[in-house]
Specification:
The protein has one domain: 3-Layer(aba) Sandwich (Aminopeptidase). The protein is built from 6 helices and 9 strands; from the N terminus they run αβαααβββαβαββββ. The N terminus and C terminus are likely disordered. The N and C termini lie far apart (58 Å). The strands form 2 sheets. Strands 1-2-3-4-5-7-6 form a 7-stranded mixed sheet, sandwiched between helices. With 221 residues, the chain is α+β, with helices and mostly antiparallel strands.
């Protein structure tokens, strides 16, 4: 690819992850498990340190595969043709216990709070709109799943130039979340941010199955 091709916006197809997508995830993440043997398990473990070191690589891979086959992983996949080029992971905040052990990311959340915890875009496809397409779909997945609040945890640049290496931007960056209607909320850390998007309550469909009419009769409409 030329330098222009590496920064040219691309159109990708994005869809929700399914229980049958393990082969796709394995192909996208490669031998490194996306980054450093993580296999998108970082936030699912209750703590870091020795536990994290013990699980990097093959154990994380097995754990993610088991969760995926059990239907306990929510996410989005981006494709360029038939080739997977991006991943975004989300779900109820309760699914990610390590968030509670990260002081900078503690919030007054409820059971209806969801989180976007991870992005992975294959090298050569970064800075081309793939993460934006993934977050757009993630917002839709969260809303349809019943979330009332969707949180994101973008990193802030540590230099005056405002640059963040790709390896350190795996939770997203502030402009990405701002573009999709997220608002920053106060947090205890200057180098981490919490962004939220709130959803209006979805109207519940009224079921007429077995309902009684004015004459006491039941029926379906």
């Amino acid at each position: 690819m030329t330098s222009k091709e590496l920064t040219r916006p691309v159109r990708v197809a994005v869809r929700p992850l399914t229980e049958c997508d393990w082969d796709v995830v394995e192909r996208l993440f490669g031998t490194n498990g996306a980054c450093g043997g993580c296999w998108c398990m970082y936030w699912r473990l209750p703590r870091g340190g020795r536990l994290w070191e013990q699980n990097k690589g093959a154990p994380n891979k097995r754990a993610l595969k088991k969760l995926l086959f059990a239907g306990r992983v929510l996410g989005c996949l981006a494709f360029a043709g038939d080739e997977p080029v991006g991943w975004c992971c989300l779900g109820p905040r309760a699914d990610f216990p390590r968030l509670e052990r990260t002081k900078a990311l503690q919030t007054a959340w409820t059971q209806d709070t969801w989180s976007v915890v991870c992005f992975f875009v294959r090298s050569g496809w970064r800075h081309r709109g793939v993460a934006s397409a993934l977050l757009k779909k993630a917002v839709a997945v969260a809303r349809e799943g019943g979330a009332q609040v969707l949180e994101g945890y973008p990193v802030r640049p540590s230099t005056s130039r405002g640059e963040i290496p790709g390896a350190f931007a795996w939770t997203g960056v502030e402009p990405l979340f701002e573009k999709h209607g997220f608002k920053s909320i106060p947090g205890p850390s200057s180098n981490r941010a919490v962004f939220v998007r709130r959803f209006r309550a979805m109207p519940k469909k009224r079921s007429t199955k077995g309902a009684r009419d004015s004459k006491g009769r039941t029926g379906d409409t």
